[in-house]
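Milestone M4 deliverable, item 7.
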Amino acid sequence: MKIGIDLDGVVIDSETTFRVYEEIFDIDILKGNNLIDKSEPKFQSRYNWTEEQENTFIKNHLFKASRESNIMPGFKTVYKLLKEQNHEFIVITARGGFFQEMQDDAKRILKENDIKFDKYYFKIKDKLEICQQENIDIMIDDNWEIIKRIADNKIKTLYFRDTNLKKLDENEYIREVNNWGEIYRIIKGGI
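Output delivered:
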C-alpha cells in the first residue's frame, strides 16, 4: 500500500509545540486575547493577528518551536511494523515553505531517529495533486481542509485530529484517528 504522510502533527509533534508558542506570543507579546477559532489548523485562521504580527511570530518563534519538536508517540514502532509489511511511505508536506531551515530541521529530526521514507515532497501547497500523481492509497494528515479536499476526490484519508481541531463526519474516505495505534489498526485491518 502507498501511504501518503504529512510530517507536522502526524510524524513530528510540532503542531502541538507551535500552539504553545502561539499562545505565549498572543498573551505575553501581543498582550491580548486574539484567539478567534481554536478549531482551525493554522495560526493564520486561529487568531485575528495582523499580517505584521503573523510575520513577527514566524520570524521569532516558528523555527524555535520546530527545534523543540519530537517524533510523535508510537510512530517509530508502527512505522517499523508497517515497513516490515512492505508498505511504502511518501512524505507530502508543506514544511519548508516559510523557511528552508524548517525543512532541514525535519530532516535532522528524522535522521536522529533513523527514519527513512521512500520519497519526499517538501513545500507542497496542493497535496491532492501529489496524491493523484503518486497513486496514494491512503493519506494521513492533521489538517481538516486538506483531508476534506483529498477525500472529496475519492482518496482514502486518516484525519489525525488533535483535540481542538474541527470534527469531520466519517465516511468511506475519511476516518478519524488520534494516535499511531489507531492508524495501525486501520491499515492492518485493510482500511
